[in-house]
Structures are given as C-alpha cells and as structure tokens.
Amino acid sequence: MAALSPWARAGVVAVAALSLALPPPLSAQRLLDQPLFPQQLELPDRPPIDTRGEFLLRADEVSYDRTLEIVTATGSVEISQGDRVLLADQISYNRRTDIVTANGNIALIEPTGEVLFASHAELSRDFANAVIRDLKVRLHENSRIVATSARRIDGTRKEMLNAAFSPCGRCDREPGVEPTWRLEADRIVHDETTQDMIYTNATMTLFGVPVFYTPFFRHPDPTVKRRSGFLSPSVGQSSNAGFYVGVPYFWAYQPNTDFTFESRVFSEEGPQALTEMRHRFADGQVRLAGSLLNGRRVEGSRITNDRTWRGHIVGEGRFAIDEDWRAGFDLSRATDRTYARRFRINNDWRARPNAPIPDFATTALYAEGFKGRSYYSVENFVFQSLRDFDVAERIPKVHPLATASWVGQPSAWGGYLRSDNSVLALTRQRGTDTNRISSINGYYLPFTSRRGDVWSIAATVQTDGYYVNQLSEGLTQPYSGFVGRVHPQLSVDWRYPMIRRLEQATMVIEPRIGAVVGPNGNNSAKIPNEDSRGFEFDDTNLFGPRRYQGFDRVASGQRVDYGIGASIYGASGGAITAFLGQSLRTRKDTTYAVGSGLEDRLSDVVGRVSVQPLQYLNLSYRFRRDQDSWKSARDELTATVFSGGQVLSASYTQRDRVLTRGTSQPFESVSLQGSSRLSEYWSAYGLYVRDIAAKQNVRAALGLLYRDEDFAALVTVERDFVNDRDLQGGTTVLLRLGFRYLGDIGG
What we know:
- This protein is mainly β.
- The chain has a domain at 2-220: Lipopolysaccharide (LPS) transport protein A like domain (lipopolysaccharide transport protein A fold).
- The strands form two sheets. The protein has a 29-stranded antiparallel beta sheet that branches. Strands 1, 2, 3, 4, 5, 6, 7, 8, 9, 10, 11, 12 and 13 form a 13-stranded antiparallel beta sheet that branches.
- The radius of gyration is 36 Å and the shape is elongated.
- It starts with a strand and ends with a strand.
- The model is unreliable at 1-53, 347-354 and 659-663 (pLDDT under 50).
C-alpha cells in the first residue's frame, strides 16, 4: 500500500471503514443498561465543509490499497459530505462498490440535528442508506432510540429491530438517569417523511415496570408539535351522570387554526357532543368552545324523564389594533346553572369541574387604549343569571360603558390634574333604564415636609347627569326623567411615621388623620344605584375620599378619619404590624346602608394585626367591631406556615350579616388547605371547607402529583357535600396520566 499525499487526502471522493471483527449483537435491554452516548465523544461545533461539491476528510492517517481500491482512514476520522458529518475511529471506502464502512465510536450528524451513534455501520456514498449495528439515536428535544440493528433507507426512514424509544428531558441534567417511561418493540420504524414512529409488538414500561402491551402502535415523532388525529380517550364515573367514555379528535386545519371534536356517551344521559376552535391572527387570537346534550329535564331540584336540550358556549378573543389600542370579547352562556358541573365540562375555565358554580354568565365586548398617561375604554356587557330566583327580564344590559381617564404632568410642586369620565347606557326588559354621564375632575397634591410628615391633598368636583326610566327602588311611585348632581369635595390626609431603633429591632409608630369636606346628602332617591352596591367598610378604605367604587353613590358630608399604626421589625427577620382606626361624621344620614358599619355618626372600629415571629410563620387578623358594644361585625383570621416547598394555611371568616337572596343572614366558615413538596418530583395537597353557620361541610379534597420532564400523574379524591338543583354531592376520584409526545389519559 502507498500513503496518499496531502493533496490526495483532500480530494478523496468518499471514505469508509471495513470491520474485520464485529462484536456480537446486543439486546435492547443490554443497550439500555449502558451509557446512552459515549461521554468521550466530542461533536464538532462547526458546520459541515463541502469542498468543490464533494467532501472533506480529516484523519490522523490515510492509506490507499491500489489493488483492492480501498481507502482507509484511521484516528479521529471526520468526513463532511453535503449537510452531513460522519465521525468514527476508522473509516474505509471501497471505490468499486461505493460502500463506506465505519467502525468504533461512530456518530452521524444529520442536517436536522439528529445524531446516530453506532459501533459498526455500512453506508452508501451519500450516507443516505446504511446497515447499522448497536444503534443509538438522539432525536429532537433529547429523546432517544436504541436498537441492536437497523437499516437506514434513502436518508428518511429507519427500520430498527429489538428497539426502544424514550424521551429523556432530564438526561443532560442528570447523566446516567433512567428515562421515566419507554416503549420497547420487536420493530420500530421512524419515517422522517411522514414524521411517524411505528411500533410492532410494543410494550410500555413505566419506572422499569411493564404496564401496557399492544401489537401495533403509532405516534408522531418528537419533531411534530401538532397534527390531526384521535387523542387519548376520556373515561370516568360520575354519581350525577353515570359512567362515561369520550373519544376526542384533533383537526389541525391550518398552521394557525385547529379544531377539537369529542363525542361522549353517558350511561344515564346518552350522547354528548363537544367542540373547541382556536385561531391565531397576526395580531390576535380567538377561542370558542361549546357542547350540546339532549338530557333529562330539570325542574327545580327534581330530575324528570322528559328530554330537553342542554349545553353551553364560551369563548374569548384578543386583538391588537395598533400600539395604543386593543380590543376583545368574552362569551359565556349556558342553558342552566349546573350543566357544566354535572357533565364535567373542563374546556371552560369559568366552569371547571368542582369549581364554585357562578351566579352569572357574562358576555362582554370591549376596546381599550393607552396613550401616555391616559386610558380609554368602551365596554358592552350582557349578563345571564344562573340563579333560580332571578327574573331574566330584569337582568340589565350595558351598551355601552365608556370611560376616559387623563392624568396631567406633575408641576414643580408635585401636584397634578386628573380627570375621570364615564358614559353609561343600561337597559332592562322590565325595570329601570339608566343613562348617565359622569365626570370627576380634580387637583391632587402629595408631598412630604422637611419634618418627615406625609401629606395628600385633593380638591375634586364630581358632576353627574342622568336620564332614568321607570325608577322605582326607594320611591313611592316610579320616576322617569332627568336628574343631576354636582358634588365638590376637599380631602386632606396626614400621617407622621416615627422610627426608633432598638437593640434588636426597629419600631415604627404612625398616627394618621384624614378630613373630608363636602355637601351633605347628594344621594337622591331619584338617582339609581347600579355600580355602587358592593361596598364593604374595612381598614383599606377608611381614609378613602370616595369610598364607593362606582359613580352612582358619593361619600357625602363632612367627616374625620383617624387611626394609628405600629410596627416592630426584628433584626432576625420577624415582624409585628398593627392598625386601628375609626371615622366620625358630622351628621347621621342615609349615605350608608344599615349594617355597613358607617350608618351612625361614629363608625365601627376597623383594624388589622399581622404577626410573623419566624420567617416561616405568618398570622393575620382583620376585624370590624361595633363602636358601642364592641361586638364583632366581621372577623378574618389566617395562619400560614411555609418552609421550602411546604405550605399550610388555615382561615376563619365570620360576618354578622351577608346579603343573600335579598335577605340578611350571618356567615361563618373555616377552611384548611396545604401543599407539600415531598421531593423534586412528588408533591401533595389537601383542602377542607366547612360552613359553620349552616353546620355543614362544604368540600374536602386530597391529591398526589408526580411530575418530571417526560411524565406526570395526578390522583385526587374529592368530596362535595353540597347539593344544588340536580347536582348531588358525592365523592370523585380522578386519575390522570400524561406522557410526553403521547398525550394524556384519565377520567
């Protein structure tokens, strides 16, 4: 043999290696027990080199047998052929047969990023066809294939014997770790053209234990993000609807549009159809989902044998009009209150299984804009009541509610102008129609004096104009016509934080006084109350000049608000904070409802206490006490323990009256919930809720979750104690398994 010159080395057409002694074949299990990829192999970080349209060869030594026409390269051999790179300890090329043979630490790097490892391979000149022994493949997203032998056909199809496929998202992070699950088969075909993985006589192992066998199985390869086809079935048992099974089908209609169709059959109700559509625009997205079932009719809390159509539809849309404006809609409608919970509708975030049943379904259409320090919005609302006692004709429609807010630039003194404006049109089929124009304009001046006391001064004027039709609430006879209001208001808020440093702590005491001056009354009975009903007096709005959130009610009259806060912060991180406050009005009127805590001249006392003696313990107590008897009007107590991944929280809530179905009733409940990170992949949670006032348990649940990069399993046991119409309380056991690339299954 004669050694090639350096010029001949750079111009050889192809290189291969011929193995004289091949090792015996390994089983797939033996391959799985070995390191998946040789640690000593270093893949090139440069792109393939194509010299004059042929290839480039790099090796420690190259020789040529002129008689047999075999070129042999040994020692760190690298061949770049087009978009592929072949690495090996030894490569031989037979010029007569155009066969490349490689031995030892073989790595074939594909243009897609896929890498094939082997101990021995015979390849065609362009590396597109090959016979491989002891194959190991690293696919997209670090998924793996091992096989005792394989054939590569046209560079797009691999046929592998005694093979196994597994995802291994944590293999790089935890070298040597076993994949959570794998599919072992007598034969695996990877069709790169159709992007399919096809198995013959496949067995799934989970944590090393065989759990499932199938003579034939097929799924998309890891490069596929979405594809049309049947999804994993849903199976379950419900005490309200019986046994059910569902088969969903996913249709990838376009790259930016897809549909999901599912047919479910309930043993006690019959078939149900569900669908979901998702579409993405260049500047937005739309999602619509719905279901339909011809089930048994519900009358009150009784289920009859008559059939009726029940269903729901939900959706949302979000659109970016330009850099300053965006628009969207929310859609939510249902035939009845309990439909979504009864039939386990889980594609609606507003009606998740075991979530609280909402009182209203809200449909909205809106547009909003942001410009500098200004904000604009136009909203339209349609409400559907899901409560038995509401009259549909009395539910309002809002078309529109338009708002515009503007904040001016601060002056040299720090003061600024602000304007908040609103236009409302609200109609009912039966009842009051309201049309309103409101504007609040004012000057705000926050500043801190040289002594350190903090001031906030505001002078505002609220102007409202109404046209109402058939207003009857609070009147002896209905009123229709125009009514207006001008309400000026001046407010001053002062607080003086005083700090004292102790040996092991820092103490802060902060007295606070606020004064509000405005005309009395100004809440005429001829002005409807549409947006100011959800008022609750507590320490967060004690000093608010406008205590109501909406425009329809104003905090009229003159008053003084006062309180004191105290805090101690320990050097080791512990802290105690407290606040106590009250309000005094100059006169008693009907500005605030009876039971609000503000109906008398001297208000109830509100306060809060928060104690964190240790970094992992927090105690919080908020309260409102009657100013005469000191009787509790509201108590909210929460205790939370947290350490690392462990959280345990207990809460108690008591209110002396809550408006329920038009009547005033007491409310008292206790809840306990917690979660624990048992290990890196295991966690658990629990929940318990009891209505003390009704002497009834509400809900209890326990759950266990395992989650790693490739597999997730959730098992929960939930007990619902509350009956609602046709929805009966009961126990639900949920088991759901999720496999990377395969989807999830459960019910």
